[in-house]
């Protein structure tokens, strides 16, 4: 019957659109930084999420380069990865807020997989740090994702006023906001910029946007069902339709 063929074709188109949306979402997902706090002077847990490999190749390591405004971070242990840190020396000592001086800082943190992360699985890596007093400034954390075959260097910085979608491989980032009474600015921590004790902040990667491709695919499939229903209704109302 004609309405049956119409319904079948419409549903097929809807399902195809949903699958395409899921595929595009997976391909465009990038390494993101999700902070628990962004206020100047506050302590924050910044979680970096890796949601796919390099063109289907498993991930073997993630090197996170720290912006120059940070002196140090405290990496959170991930049982499936080993951690190493690199440092760089200052040409002249840097003076901290408490008056003490330091001669070097942590420049990068690298997580290396004990077993390669499947290209279709995700994992997260969290750094504890103190947000610098630089209200309005966007801090970039270039991340080099190495895989068994190839690598992706998430280091691109968009032009002023442009979104991260304007570059091919956007660097993870966070923008410093003004301190508030609830942000913890001025709370006591160690002089190197890492808190001595932290309260539990929950899962920082729950809102990293990794679920939107699934919702997009669901929406496309639902649209196909609606269109199919309309086609069935319109066809069944035509005189002489059997």
TrEMBL record:
Chain segments annotated as transmembrane: 212-233
Keywords: Membrane, Signal, Transmembrane, Transmembrane helix
InterPro entries: YcnI-copper_dom, YcnI-like_sf
Disordered: annotated span: 179-206
Domain spans labelled YncI copper-binding: 30-176
Cited Pfam families: DUF1775
Cleaved signal peptide residues: 1-26
Protein name per Swiss-Prot or TrEMBL: YcnI family protein
Organismal lineage: Bacteria, Bacillati, Actinomycetota, Actinomycetes, Micrococcales
């Amino acid at each position: 019957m004609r309405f049956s063929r119409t319904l079948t074709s419409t549903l097929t188109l809807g399902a195809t659109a949903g699958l395409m949306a899921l595929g595009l979402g997976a391909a465009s997902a990038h390494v993101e930084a999700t902070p628990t706090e962004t206020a100047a002077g506050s302590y924050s847990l910044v979680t970096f999420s890796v949601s796919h490999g390099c063109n289907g190749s498993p991930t073997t390591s993630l090197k996170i380069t720290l912006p120059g405004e940070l002196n140090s971070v405290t990496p959170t242990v991930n049982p499936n990865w080993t951690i190493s840190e690199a440092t760089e020396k200052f040409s002249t000592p840097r003076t901290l807020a408490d008056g003490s001086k330091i001669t070097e800082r942590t420049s990068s943190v690298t997580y290396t997989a004990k077993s390669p992360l499947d290209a279709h699985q995700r994992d997260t890596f969290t750094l504890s740090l103190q947000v610098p007093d630089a209200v309005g400034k966007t801090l970039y954390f270039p991340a080099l994702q190495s895989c068994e075959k190839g690598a992706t260097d998430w280091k691109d910085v968009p032009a002023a006023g442009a979104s991260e979608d304007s570059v091919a491989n956007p660097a993870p980032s966070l923008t410093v906001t003004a301190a508030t009474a609830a942000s913890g600015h001025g709370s006591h921590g160690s002089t190197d910029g890492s808190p001595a004790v932290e309260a539990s902040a929950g899962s920082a990667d729950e809102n990293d946007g990794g679920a939107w491709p699934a919702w997009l695919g669901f929406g496309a499939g639902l649209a196909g069902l609606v269109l199919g229903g309309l086609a069935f209704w319109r066809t069944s109302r035509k005189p002489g339709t059997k």
